[in-house]
Amino acid sequence: MTDYIIRDINLAAYGRKELDIAETEMPGLMALREEYCDSKPLSGARIAGSLHMTVQTAVLIETLTALGAQVRWASCNIYSTQDHAAAAIAETGVPVFAVKGETLEEYWSYTDRIFRFAGDGEADGTANMILDDGGDATLYVLLGARVENGEKDLIATPQSEEEEALFAQIRKRLAQSPGWFTRQRDAIRGVSEETTTGVHRLYDLHKKGLLPFPAINVNDSVTKSKFDNKYGCKESLVDGIRRATDVMMAGKVAVVCGYGDVGKGSAASLRGAGARVKVTEVDPICALQAAMDGFEVVTLEDVADSADIFITTTGNKDVIRLEHMRAMKDMAIVGNIGHFDNEIQVAALRNHKWTNIKDQVDMIQMPSGNRIILLSQGRLLNLGNATGHPSFVMSASFTNQVLAQIELWANGDDYKPGVYILPKALDEKVARLHLDKIGVKLTQLSREQADYIGVAQDGPFKSDHYRY
Ligand code: NAI
């Protein structure tokens, strides 16, 4: 029996060619393969992976298996899979459950499948590690275990289509495999989390005493959030808008909601394309940064009826609301590059007239007669409408992921439940692994200089509170 669900296994050869190219741009991951190919520090690890099933993720998966892990994989978004990458992975025998455009029901059933390893002595197998992006795989297990242990009312009334599909999947698993969620939760040695939104969820769980295992916050490695979130979005935001709409960007007025790491990259992306960019913020520090980077800082109410392109980057909910969309000009473009689709009130548009233009592009008619173009139904557009970030920046992110998995698998018992970040020496190592590829020459500190600024000659070069 084939242990995968993908679009088409015949796409594997194309996927493999793109993987081969991606490897040449992912020096961090390739260096880890070299360093650990003999010692195989992930032997025995059964990793349930929930992260956009792209070409770059395929290189991550093959690095984890080269280091000895068994892996099962799903995408963490219904639109982000690259079907040829999924096919290339499935062809190698690694179970992958990911189809671009899968339904929400399929999404949660695929999330369930990533945990179902054979060979741990039980009829219904378990994973012992989670590699998560946005926290859905972690949520599935922890919520399922709480319901299994008597908190039935937790899944009584779904608040959204997402929750409805999640709760249905939990009910199904509870009926099919009594006791499985609890066994699965107890089998987890640790989780490494990729993104800002997932990290928020982990800190929240820990605060409430609901996180039973250690977690490594990969997002807040400097070589992740200050690179992927920023420089990644700088390349992939405009790529997504262009592939979706082919609209002339130069001269248009674009609004970026949020000026955190993703907002900084997104505003730079649009400015680079010649758009006149405005920013909204709630945080005075980020608002001041935006202003001093040369962006006009406005409220959405002030610009809803005059801007051409609206992009949310906040990780917050209800940022672009129905009243904003009703005020927009004809053919305004609306999209989100934050993790979840609730940044835009898409649900409130469901009773409007929708015309599908092509996959992940819809035109929606407002009561005034004006139309808006909505990208990826409000889900992250750089992965829905384009192919996400380029390989080089994902190499930095995923090198942190692999180091986090090694640390938790080897030393998980030394950590109490809680959320940790990787030590600065490893962060600097990740950066160092990416220098040669782009011809960066480092200056070496002399002993006297190192003593003078109070660091070791080979680093770490900064204190933990340094902000970059
Ligand atoms: P961040 O915390 O650095 O930035 C978010 C910013 O939004 C903050 O400055 C905050 O003050 C601001 N904000 C919050 N509510 C707001 C509101 N109502 N109006 C205007 N501004 C508001 O977070 P980061 O790292 O920039 O991540 C943002 C989101 O993007 C998260 O959901 C994250 O998971 C996701 N992400 C997406 C990526 C992609 O490839 N699409 C890559 C990396 C992260």
Strand order of the largest sheet: 9-8-7-10-11-14-13-12
**Which secondary-structure class do the elements indicate?**
alpha/beta
Ligands bound, unique? 1,4-dihydronicotinamide adenine dinucleotide
Rg (C-alpha, Å): 22 Å
Percent of residues in helices comes to: 40-55%
Strand content: 5-15%
Number of strand elements: 15
Number of helices: 18
Low-confidence spans: none
Average pLDDT confidence is 97
Distance between the termini: 50 Å
**In this structure, how is the largest beta sheet organized?**
8 strands, mixed
What's the overall geometry? Answer: globular
Blueprint (SSEs and pairs):
Layout: H1 12-24, H2 27-36, E1 46-50, H3 55-66, E2 70-74, H4 83-91, E3 96-97, H5 104-113, E4 129-132, H6 136-148, H7 161-176, H8 180-187, E5 190-193, H9 196-207, E6 214-217, H10 222-245, E7 253-257, H11 261-272, E8 276-280, H12 284-292, E9 296-297, H13 300-303, E10 309-312, H14 322-327, E11 332-336, E12 353-358, E13 361-365, E14 371-375, H15 381-384, H16 391-411, E15 418-420, H17 424-432, H18 447-453
Parallel strand pairs: 1-2, 1-4, 2-3, 4-5, 5-6, 6-15, 7-8, 7-10, 8-9, 10-11, 11-14
Antiparallel strand pairs: 12-13, 13-14
Helix pairs in contact: 1-3, 1-4, 2-3, 2-16, 3-4, 3-16, 5-7, 6-7, 6-8, 10-11, 10-16, 16-17
The structure holds 1,4-dihydronicotinamide adenine dinucleotide.
Residues 195-197, 225, 228-229, 232-233, 257-263, 280-283, 286, 313-316, 319, 337-339, 380, 382, 389 line the site of 1,4-dihydronicotinamide adenine dinucleotide.
